[in-house]
Amino acid sequence: MSPARAGRLEGPIHSVGIIVRDRSSEIVAVLERLAAWLGERDVSVAAEDAERPGGHGETALDTADGHFDLVIALGGDGTLLRAARAVVGTGTPVLGVNLGRLGFLTAFPDAELEVGLATVFEGRALLDYRFMLRGSIESGGKTRGDKFFALNDIVIHTSGAARVTPLTLHVGSGAAREEVGSFAADGVILATPTGSTAYSMSAGGPIIVPDVECIVVTPICPHSLAVRPLVIPAGEVLSVGSLDPDVHHQVTVDGQAERGLAPSETVVVAREERPVALVRLPGQTFFRTMRRKLNWAASAPERA
After folding, report:
1. Which end of the chain is more exposed for a tag (fewer CB within 10 A), N or C?
2. Closest CA to 197 of 187, 207, 188
3. Residues β-bridged to residue 153
4. Dihedral over alpha carbons 19, 251, 239, 236 (to 10 degrees)
5. How far apart are CA 134 and CA 251, in angstroms?
6. How far apart are alpha carbons 96 and 3 in whole angstroms?
7. pLDDT tens digits for 236-248?
């Protein structure tokens, strides 16, 4: 399946789950507007309790398969990323309402809440299917803990004080596993095309159009002029380990969920075959969003 294959959000919406950034007065006001709008249409609503978040930076809202026809994220890109991880494998579409600063992945701002919802419920909204990353922490061929998922990126870096650390990167699995190389850096970012416009871009990685099936490997402040970002086919398995037996590392998922990484452990990352469906409105395209949100080539170059 193409990672950004577009479809249309069809079928009646009878139940909605809401994931919120917090319980600030701003969020509560929008939540009340949203609940009132949905209530007028006899849509059942279940909102996340922001005071009782799930573990590892996840949501406490029960998003198991079949619970909701739609999940709405009230906040910014971070809230939408958390919602995307919550619906992995369920097929539930995620609609982002932006109350943050950038809102690159969201469908519309809270000022357009009622108009945007009307577009969605009238069946005129579109779905973009984005692939996610599936990660695990392994040692001696055994997996520690549960697998974790990321829509944007999985980052391996030192814990505690910022320092350069030696890392090794392998591609493939089994007999086809091959060492790409080792390098010293502050860490490394493994990003999806969706996440290429986030931390990876800030660290010097390329912008990848969501239709391209690949994983971006972006070293963070590498201590070498010879180390540059890599674009690897999405079907490959990536393994990142440490070359320093005395340094503990940290794995950060979508900039939110954190896990410790012992010196003897390896982070194994692959494409998650079950995509997440993001809701967007007609006319909302990747390039239009890139121009508006990232100011990419917004003005013509001056004549020399």
Report:
1. C
2. 207
3. 191
4. 20
5. 13
6. 18
7. 999 999 998 888 8
| Per-residue pLDDT, 48 | 86
Q: Quote the tokens at residue 127.
A: 């779905």
Pairing of strands 94-98, 108-109: parallel
**What was the pLDDT predicted at 5?**
63
**Predicted confidence (pLDDT) per residue in 108-128, tens digit:** 999 999 999 999 999 999 999
Which residues are part of the catalytic machinery? 77
Measured distance CA(149)–CA(132) in Å, rounded:
7
Q: E strand or H helix at 259, and its extent?
A: strand 257-261
What's the rounded Cα separation, in Å, for the pair 87 and 125?
19
- 132-273: CATH number: 2.60.200.30
Report yes or no on whether pTM surpasses 0.85: yes
The rounded distance, in Å, linking the Cα atoms of 61 and 105 is: 21
Per the rule left: phi > 0, alpha: psi between -120 and 50, beta: everything else, 107 is alpha
CATH code linked to domain 5-130+275-294: 3.40.50.10330
Report domain extents, the chain.
5-130+275-294, 132-273
Same fold, 5-130+275-294 and 132-273: no
Q: Which residue has the tokens 């999405």?
A: 234
Residue with tokens 């939540």: 31
Query: Nearest CA to 127 among 89, 76, 93, 167?
Result: 93
Please name the amino acid found at residue 63: T
Q: Is residue 69 packed enough to be buried (19+ CB in 10 Å), middle (13-18) or exposed (0-12)?
A: middle
- Report the candidate in 87, 90, 79 with the shortest Cα–Cα distance to residue 19: 79
| Rounded Cα distance, 104 and 113, in Å | 17
As a whole number of angstroms, the distance between CA 215 and CA 273 comes to 14
Question: What is the CB-side half-sphere exposure of residue 89 using CA atoms within 13 A?
Answer: 10
At 3 the pLDDT is: 42
In the predicted model, residues of the chain with pLDDT beneath 50 are 1-3, 53
